[in-house]
Amino acid sequence: MSLVAGAVSELQDLLGAQFQVNQAHLKAYYQNATEFQPKEVLGVAKPNSPEQVRQILEVCSRQSLKVYTFSTGMNWGLGSKIPTEGQCVLLDMAGLKQIRAVSEEYRYAIIEAGVTQKELSDYLEAKGYNLILPVTGSSPHSSILGNSLERGTTFLTHRAQDLRNLEVILPDGQLVRTGFWETANGEGGLGDELHYSYGNGPDVKGLFVQSNLGVVTAGVIELLPKPETIKLFWASVKEAQLPAFLDRCKQLYRMGGMRNIMHVGNEKRMKITGKGISSDSVWVAMTALQGPKGLVEWQESALTTYLSGLVSTMRFVSSADDLSEEPVLARMMDLHKGKPTTIFLQAMYKSEDSAGHNVDYDIDRGDVGMLCCLPAFPMDGARILKAVEVANAIAEEHGFLLATTINPVNDLYAESVINLYFNRSSEADIAKAHHCNSLIHKKLADLGYKFYRLDVKEMTHGYHNPMSISVPKLLKGVLDPEARLAAGKYGV
Ligand SMILES: Cc1cc2nc3c(=O)[nH]c(=O)nc-3n(C[C@H](O)[C@H](O)[C@H](O)COP(=O)(O)OP(=O)(O)OC[C@H]3O[C@@H](n4cnc5c(N)ncnc54)[C@H](O)[C@@H]3O)c2cc1C
Fold first, then answer.
1. Residue 73: CB within 6 Å of ligand 1?
2. How high is the pLDDT of residue 361?
3. Alpha-carbon distance 285 to 97, whole Å?
4. Structural domain boundaries of the chain?
5. Which of these, 185, 155, 17, lies nearest to 95 by C-alpha position?
6. Ligand 1 within 6 A of CB of 361
7. C-alpha to C-alpha distance for 67 and 86, rounded to whole angstroms
């Protein structure tokens, strides 16, 4: 029996049907909306407890098997479930489903890796907690922890900042918890240790984000208090006014007029509105004003004063308004109240005039391909528009129209999502899209722009800062000297 065959049979003994090697079964794991060439995997292990994860890592360590972990694997646009290296075991954490505890007092939930946005959102509602989960525009069935570990962004907050503590199994099978989280059962003891994320000494949590140093089994995720008042700001902005608009938003963040993330989408992105794409490009901006009534009223008047000269239309929609005739606004209100929706997944198909989606909007199985370029812009309107124009020009040369959002987070930076959609059934279209996306990355990098997330392919193109990744590289040599976990991820 070969080394690999021995390891495979050991995993089969350990997991039974939760370890699959059948290539027909593995096909679903190879499908990826980015159309990256799949890398051959040896099998898929589906643990359902941290203890099983530990046992799997122990076998893989003993047998020198490589491992690639994901939570629900909807890393769409960045490679889905495609590992950084082939000939590995995929560790599918979707079966770790426990919501271990919720604290209303200290605004957190302790969840395992496979808990989805919908599951926690529904749980909070069913139990009547006075808390909301900030949610992303991705699938209701996507995980909270996988998204946080990629440093994702919700409609209200930055997930990396919502992550208070992590429970991690290191490559040698050792279980560690970060900060002050040390209770033996991992349920958060008296609640007196999870109100403060850092612990003392170095803040270890960050080492496991966009990282390959361990497998995260659970985390403490910050929740928001249900606000007394919510108002949705919804405006349209002509592209010529976009730089001035963004600069005013920077001022508004600085003075406290806005606190949540804003989403500003171009017409291709905002196909949720169902309107056509015009030649005089118009962007749609939205953010939620939340808090006590008096604060929201003051914020509304600040936004009106600062932005009215720069927008074509502007509305403030209250959660008390009847939105039954305006389903798009109703879904946007839901998102900002912590209820995930498929509206942005639907928009992707709409903007490509495709009916080829499936019930759950699992885009890995749909007919529209998708690639991403994700720069973190300094909050400077002119510099942001310059990048948008550079990306648009490259896309146009290749015959694509980009779906772009600029998401100001605060007065310092805006994250951007530049999506390129393509026809998955055309080899020529796929090759053109890949070339175009790489060129956009290269051109923006040459101009000094930086990327906050990268796909499994662009990750290998050296966009990281060698001085910064020298630390995780040193740690990798100690914790995982054979580089068995996700080798090469983010350059480590
Ligand atoms: C229409 C549309 C809208 C979207 N909107 C958003 C949005 O608003 N915000 C946003 O951030 N993204 C968005 N996305 C992108 C993506 O779908 C989400 O980021 C999604 O949450 C990622 O999938 P996941 O939660 O299943 O993460 P996974 O795919 O499970 O994880 C992502 C990566 O994190 C690492 N990882 C995951 N779990 C573990 C673990 N347990 N231990 C160690 N490492 C791990 C792995 O490297 C993995 O590849 C959108 C995509 C589409 C198509």
1. yes
2. 86
3. 35
4. 3-95, 99-225, 229-458
5. 17
6. no
7. 9
* Shortest-distance Cα residue to atom 29 of ligand 1: 73
Tell me the residue type at 274: G
**Under CATH, what is the fold of the domain 3-95?**
3.30.43
Q: In the CATH hierarchy, which fold is given to the domain comprising 99-225? A: 3.30.465
Taking 70 as the pLDDT cut, the residues of the chain under it are: 1-3, 184-192, 271-280, 356-359
Give the SS3 label for residue 450: strand
47 lines ligand 1 (CB under 6 A): no
Q: Is 166 in the pocket of ligand 1 (CB under 6 A)?
A: no
Residue 350: per-residue pLDDT: 84
**Which are the contacts of 6, defined by CB distance < 8 A and separation ≥ 6?**
63
Name the residue with the closest Cα to ligand 1, atom 22: 75
Contact 186, 177 (CB under 8 A): yes
Query: CA-CA distance, 492 to 472, in Å (whole number)?
Result: 7
Q: What is the 3-state secondary structure (H, E, C) of 86-122?
A: CCEEEEEHHHCCCEEEEECCCCEEEEECCCEHHHHHH
Q: Which CATH number fits domain 229-458: 3.40.50.150, 3.40.190.10, 3.40.462.10, 3.40.30.10?
A: 3.40.462.10
Helix and strand element counts for the chain (H, E): 13, 19
Q: What is the pTM of this model?
A: 0.95
